[in-house]
Amino acid sequence: MSAAVLSGKELSAAIRAETAERAAALTAAGTEPRLAVVVATADESSAWYVRSIAKAAGKAGITCDIVDLGATASPESIRARLAELSADERVHGIILQTPLPAGASLQELAGAIAFEKDVDGANPVSLGRLAAGLPAFAPATAEAVVRVLEHHTIELTGRHVAVVGRSMVVGKPVAHLLLNANATVTVCHSRTRELAAVTSAADVVVAAVGRAGMVTADHVAPGAVVIDVGTNPTEDGGLAGDVDADSVSGKAGALTPVPGGVGPVTTALLLSHTVRAAGG
Amino acid sequence: MSAAVLSGKELSAAIRAETAERAAALTAAGTEPRLAVVVATADESSAWYVRSIAKAAGKAGITCDIVDLGATASPESIRARLAELSADERVHGIILQTPLPAGASLQELAGAIAFEKDVDGANPVSLGRLAAGLPAFAPATAEAVVRVLEHHTIELTGRHVAVVGRSMVVGKPVAHLLLNANATVTVCHSRTRELAAVTSAADVVVAAVGRAGMVTADHVAPGAVVIDVGTNPTEDGGLAGDVDADSVSGKAGALTPVPGGVGPVTTALLLSHTVRAAGG
């Protein structure tokens, strides 16, 4: 028995098609949807990711401005630029790309992104509003997890979901989205004792730790659904998930692939959020 | 065997004494710490609670303004008054008392409380900042849970805590505070399947459901620590916890009493937050 493959490609294509339609309608009505990606790093995989967003935005009819402040930008200058973009009526979505220069904190700086334009849910305000059930954008990766589950009609109400990882980018926001979907949610992390026992009690395991192959068959109950959020670069230039797929797929009921699972849905949601922020 | 009693009285007295000292120092330096409690209800138990805060504030040397807008106040007028108090330099802490008039939402209105003055952590921004590890006030009840555990030297790192209840006032913020303290956290709620099995897997159970006696011995592991956040009014004018103490105390290792557990610490923390907000 091999676990069912929970692909994100079909869902991603559907979100992109809908986004392109809404972008075209907005543009026809005189509003050109525009996303600003603020970069302050010379990191190569970041540059690759930003180019892939810009390309996807272009295909969807969204203008993407890459605002490169250089790898030595000060926190103050980054904050000032975010505030400027927040006030700029032509800009609808703002992303602050990581990594950031030493001394700069994503959460502190993201507070300068107007929450209405915070299409990757980086401003702590967005998390607070999500938790309160108020309108806000979730981090695209966290939302992608829930959207993939829903797309594959995996019931969440009353089900026990273990989230491995407690970051502000995935673990914490996905916990709130899952609670909003009426799941019982356990958040595990590096200090969790007997991790395998805790995650094996769950119907669904979300792996968001950023360590290749960390989640193995020992961590999942027979038949469980496993969502792999990991995008760890491999030596040969590829991507490895947080889940050891060879080990897990013989035991789990279903598993998202890496690449081709949560990743493409994340990018599609960033664009979808931008169009919504533009009023589409 | 009967569970150890985790009293909040000693801790509450210590926080109050420290708060009174800081309030006196602030007043001597020319800053009179001031708390505004905004009320828009004719509810009797709310009025009782507000009087008890005002009395405790007075004892601590904190001026407490009860701003009664009446039970028919519109959401707009409540929001306007909160914004006015947020801008008033003489006011250091602001609480919006519940219940609110029909059509008014605590989370939406609390967005108008400046987070620096949000001494009961009602603004969703405060929750987001707590989750991000940025300075913010937690809801006093949620913080009281963690302070009681710490006061009784109950280790949290790596321990599994089940929180029953997912409100913005207790369940969600206490989950973040417990994660910050390196606990593994499970949030359960009304839709959780097999609640007793889930909570019985935890080292610590936090009951915050608002239903008298809901948590019984079936819900707790032998020797577990149980924190009772419930303050359900009884017919004879007393208070009943969410935990059925008679049932649980024969099985749990330790249990907070109601009254005298989390409650007095909550009030003390509200005052402590106000003095901190005033710079003390």
Q: How does this structure look, described?
A:
- Chains A, B: Residues 6-120 form the Tetrahydrofolate dehydrogenase/cyclohydrolase catalytic domain.
- Chains A, B: Its EC number is 1.5.1.5, 3.5.4.9.
- Chains A, B: Belongs to the tetrahydrofolate dehydrogenase/cyclohydrolase family.
- The structure is a homodimer of 280-residue chains.
- With 280 residues, chain A is an alpha/beta fold.
- Chain A folds into two domains: 30-122, 3-Layer(aba) Sandwich (Rossmann fold), CATH 3.40.50.10860; 139-263, Rossmann fold.
- In chain A, 40% of the residues lie in helices and 15% in strands.
- The first copy, chain A, has ten helices and eleven strands.
- Chain A has helices spanning 9-28, 44-60, 75-87, 106-110, 124-132, 140-151, 171-180, 195-199, 245-248, 262-277, and strands at 4-5, 34-39, 63-68, 93-96, 160-164, 184-188, 204-207, 225-228, 232-233, 239-240, 254-255.
- A six-stranded parallel sheet of chain A has the order 1-11-8-7-5-6. A three-stranded parallel sheet of chain A has the order 3-2-4, with helices on both faces.
- In chain A, helix 1 (9-28) runs parallel beside helix 10.
- Chain A is globular and about 50 Å long.
- The termini of chain A are far apart.
- The model of chain A has no long low-confidence stretch (mean pLDDT 97).
- At the A-B interface, helix 5, helix 7 and strand 6 of A face helix 5, helix 7 and strand 6 of B.
Write the layout of secondary structure elements.
The structure is a homodimer of 280-residue chains.
Chain A (H helix, E strand, L loop, with lengths): L3 E2 L3 H20 L5 E6 L4 H17 L2 E6 L6 H13 L5 E4 L9 H5 L13 H9 L7 H12 L8 E5 L6 H10 L3 E5 L6 H5 L4 E4 L17 E4 L3 E2 L5 E2 L4 H4 L5 E2 L6 H16 L3
Helix pairs in contact in A: 1-10, 6-7, 6-10
